Amino acid sequence: MKNFFLLILIISNFIFIFIHFKKKIKNIFYKKKIIETDVNEIHNIFETVKIDEIIQAPKKKAIIKTFSISAENKIVGMTSDYEAWIIGCISKVSKNIFEFGTCSGKTTYIMALNSSIDSKIITLTLGPSDVEDLRIDNADNKVSYRNIINESIYKKFLFSGSEEENKIEVIFKNSLKFDEKNYEKAFDLIFIDGGHTYSIVKNDSEKAFKMIRKNGIILWHDYNVGKTSSKDVVKYINKVSVNRKIKKIKNTSLCFYKEEG
Ligand SMILES: C[S@@+](CC[C@H](N)C(=O)[O-])C[C@H]1O[C@@H](n2cnc3c(N)ncnc32)[C@H](O)[C@@H]1O
């Protein structure tokens, strides 16, 4: 009898601890990759048209303006063509766009080429002279830090001199010092592809959650499980997706979040 009561006491204590610290326990054991989803879950622009039993075609509105750059040009830090197509399609239905991380301006250009004539794109980046006072946290991934230095080399971009440049505002500033207060709920699309260290991904994401408007979409680049340079991106997204509905888009390194209206 005594043993029975002891057992009941242990079990009820266990249940109490579990209920009380559910979130913390979940965080400790949360190592699993986040849920993957098909691209058409993001927006109906990605729905396909059935041609016959074996082939589905994109709808006319999912045909975008795009370009490729040969490897000989040695441009660093770019998205794949499939990822660029996804960004281009969402740009078609977005008026106000914000990007963390311009680099060569490939994604900025794709956004500008495909968004409406009255749309506006703000892209935030580090120029060669801005990296001097960049600091690294002890917990930050050193490979990602080195990549920031290697990618912050551009003063002119792929879109420089083009007609689309009129839609684009480039801000040379460390995102850690960027004040998001003037941009609360201002954007339909935010693309997070700046510094890939934990402290920067966290900073950029927390600002993006404030800057996104209802029904707006946040996309993160480089969720690559097992890739050293993506370690901090994966770590942050795994952590934040416990409380936010973030999903990975199949066959890409993109993750997405929709601010439900
Ligand atoms: C991976 S590249 C962006 C690639 C670009 N989105 C594309 O696909 O063409 C990363 C960019 O983030 C910028 N960056 C890194 N850390 C930053 C920070 N703390 N603040 C602002 N920009 C940052 C770098 O200067 C670099 O231009």
Describe this structure as you would to a colleague:
With 261 residues, the chain is of the alpha/beta class. It has two domains: 1-30; 34-258, Rossmann fold (3-Layer(aba) Sandwich). It has helices at residues 2-20, 22-29, 81-92, 106-114, 142-151, 198-211, 231-240, and strands at residues 36-37, 48-52, 55-58, 96-100, 120-125, 168-172, 187-192, 212-220, 246-249, 255-258. The strands form two sheets. Strands 1-9-10-8-7-4-5-6 form an eight-stranded mixed β-sheet, with helices on both faces. Strand 4 (96-100), helix 4 (106-114) and strand 5 (120-125) form a beta-alpha-beta unit. Helix 3 (81-92) runs parallel beside helix 4 (106-114). The model has no long low-confidence stretch (mean pLDDT 92).
Percentage of residues in helical conformation: 25-40%
Helices and strands, in order, run as: HHEEEHEHEHEEHEHEE
The CATH topology of the largest domain, please? Rossmann fold
Could you give a short account of the major beta sheet?
Answer: 8 strands, mixed
CATH superfamily of the largest domain: Vaccinia Virus protein VP39
Report low-confidence residues grouped into runs of 5 or more.
Answer: none
Q: Say how many strands there are.
A: 10
- Tell me the name of the CATH class of the largest domain: Alpha Beta
What small molecules accompany the polymer chains? S-adenosylmethionine
The CA-CA distance between the termini, in Å, is 56 Å
